[in-house]
Every structure is written in structure tokens, then in C-alpha cells.
């Protein structure tokens, strides 16, 4: 927990005149600049800040929302307000079919996931079409927030035939590891990547301001037999992820190699 005293030190010094919420905002920014509170630190509660700074909770909320909008603080639903961590961009080659867990482990990053949903459902028309399911077959959905080095990077919503994944609750840290165990790990995939802006709900889950840039990715993966095994729609933070494609010029026919 950040030292509330350190946050308000500057506020006492800041010149009167400016609106209260701006003075509070500046004092929090000063505390960040001085390093009194650093990346990942939790801010004191709204009530604590209001009492210590002798301002109303509405003023505190306004100052905090301002800083969240500018990306200096992040709000996690149910767990409070934190100083944002500067995100290093992750580069992901587009030519290798790897799992999120493998990608991050290769970079020496710690990975964890927060479950947003997992269960068996009647398939949507989209899922029926892509996964080749009939109206009587069921779909297993596995939705996770993927976090690397404590930075939320992506929301992944995977759909698989329930015949392949009858118990989504049994998936541990890695979906591909679970599929590998039953001989269903994909060997090929097609990805469609498009730019978007985050809506309110996804922005809140990722802890970034609404409207931030994102990369929406739809991955359809196949088994060696050509059967579709996975249909995953993901939302990656635009400020944290770069997809890199290697291109080569195919030698012209008849030209010496
Ligand atoms: C990657 C895949 C996702 C797959 C997941 C499995 C992209 C855009 N998506 O994140 O489709 O379901 O890996 O990861 O690359 P896991 O084995 O760690 O659960």
C-alpha cells in the first residue's frame, strides 16, 4: 500500500487557486515523479485520500479518473486503484503456432490467467459454422484474461467442440497443454487481425482507459487431419503487443537459387 502521507506532502505545497481536484491530481503525479509511489503500488482508498487531503470523495474520484484516463493509474474491478506499470511491448512472430504460455515463458516472463468464464453451451451460429457443429452438438468456452509479468495483455475467448473438451473446468494454466494430452493440439492456424478501440467492459478487464487501441484477433486452428479444433477471438492491448511477420522474396521461376 502506498504511503498516503507521501502522496499529500506535495498537495500542502501546491499553490491554491486551481480547482481542488486538479491540485490533488498534481500531488499524486508529484508523488509518482518523486518515486514515493511506484508501478504496481496500490493507492490508498478513496475514503482515506479524502480524509487525509480534507477534500470530498467526489473530488478524489474526479482526480483519480483523470489519471486513469491518461493511463497513469489503473482501476481493477473489486481490488482498487494502482499505479500503472509502463508496458514493454511484446513482439510476437506471426509464423509460429505457439501458445500464450510458451510465448511468454520463452521471454522469461511469468504468466498467469484469470478465468472470465468456462463452461459448456449451445453454440452460436458463428461457432457452429467455424467449428462445423450441428445444432444438437455443444461448444466448450474458455475465456481468460492473460497476464504477463503482472501486466494484463489480452482477453482470449476460445471455443472448441465439447466432444474435444468435455470438461473446460479441467484446463489448467495452458489450453494447448490440455489439448496436447488428448492428442488434439493444433498444428496449423489462420489468424485474422484487425484494429479496434476497446469498449467499456473489455477496457475495464484490461485495466486501460475505454477507447484505447486494441488488436482483435480471430484464430482458427486445425489438427493434422484438417479438422478445425479451435476458434478463439482475442482482444490484445494495442500498446503492449506487436505482431511481426517475416517476408521473403520467392526466387523467380528458372532463376538460379
Ligand atoms: C495464443 C493463441 C490462442 C490460444 C492460446 C493458447 C494468439 C492470438 N492466440 O494466445 O488462440 O488459445 O495461445 O495458450 O496467439 P495457452 O496454451 O497458454 O492457454
Description:
The chain is an alpha+beta fold and 257 residues long. Helix content is 29%, strand content 30%. It has helices at 4-13, 20-34, 46-53, 57-69, 100-106, 125-131, 175-181, 200-206; strands at 73-76, 80-83, 90-93, 111-121, 139-148, 151-161, 188-197, 213-222, 228-237, 241-244. It has a six-stranded antiparallel beta sheet with strand order 4-5-6-9-8-7. A hairpin with a 2-residue loop joins strand 5 (139-148) and strand 6. The mean pLDDT is 87. The chain binds 2-acetamido-2-deoxy-6-O-phosphono-alpha-D-glucopyranose. Residues 99-101, 156, 158, 174-177, 217, 219, 230, 232, 234 line the site of 2-acetamido-2-deoxy-6-O-phosphono-alpha-D-glucopyranose.
Strand order of the largest sheet: 4-5-6-9-8-7
Query: What value does the average pLDDT take?
Result: 87
Radius of gyration over C-alpha positions, nearest whole angstrom: 23 Å
Number of helices: 8
Largest sheet composition: 6 strands, antiparallel
Order of helices and strands: HHHHEEEHEHEEHEHEEE
Give the distance, in angstroms, between the N- and C-terminal Cα atoms.
Answer: 63 Å
Are there runs of 5+ residues with pLDDT below 50, and where? none
The small molecules bound here are: 2-acetamido-2-deoxy-6-O-phosphono-alpha-D-glucopyranose
Percentage of residues in strands: 25-35%
Cα shape: elongated
Number of DSSP E strands: 10
Look at the helices and sheets and give the structural class: alpha+beta
Helix content: 25-40%
Amino acid at each position: 500500500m502506498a504511503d498516503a502521507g507521501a502522496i499529500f506532502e506535495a498537495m500542502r505545497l501546491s499553490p491554491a487557486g486551481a480547482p481542488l481536484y486538479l491540485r490533488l491530481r498534481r500531488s499524486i503525479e508529484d508523488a509518482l515523479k518523486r518515486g514515493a509511489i511506484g508501478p504496481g503500488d496500490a493507492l490508498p482508498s478513496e475514503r482515506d485520500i479524502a480524509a487525509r487531503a480534507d477534500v470530498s470523495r467526489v473530488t478524489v474520484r474526479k482526480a483519480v479518473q483523470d489519471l486513469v484516463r491518461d493511463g497513469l493509474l489503473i482501476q481493477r474491478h473489486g481490488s482498487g486503484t494502482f499505479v500503472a506499470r509502463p508496458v514493454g511491448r511484446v513482439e510476437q512472430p506471426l509464423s509460429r503456432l505457439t501458445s500464450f504460455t510458451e510465448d511468454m515463458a520463452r521471454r522469461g516472463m511469468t504468466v498467469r490467467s484469470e478465468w472470465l468464464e468456462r463452461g459448456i453451451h449451445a453454440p452460436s451460429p458463428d461457432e457452429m459454422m467455424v467449428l462445423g457443429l450441428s445444432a444438437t452438438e455443444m461448444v466448450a468456452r474458455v475465456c481468460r484474461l492473460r497476464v504477463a509479468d503482472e501486466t494484463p495483455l489480452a482477453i482470449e475467448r476460445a471455443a472448441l467442440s465439447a466432444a474435444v473438451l468435455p470438461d473446460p473446468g479441467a484446463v489448467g494454466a495452458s489450453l494447448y497443454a490440455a489439448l496436447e494430452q488428448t492428442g488434439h493440439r493444433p498444428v496449423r492456424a489462420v489468424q485474422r487481425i484487425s484494429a479496434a478501440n476497446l469498449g467499456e467492459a473489455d477496457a475495464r478487464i484490461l485495466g486501460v482507459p475505454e477507447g484505447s487501441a486494441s488488436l482483435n484477433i480471430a484464430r482458427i486452428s486445425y489438427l493434422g487431419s484438417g479438422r478445425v479444433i479451435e476458434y478463439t477471438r482475442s482482444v490484445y492491448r494495442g500498446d503492449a503487443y506487436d505482431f511481426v511477420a517475416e517476408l521473403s522474396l520467392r526466387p523467380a521461376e528458372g532463376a538460379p537459387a
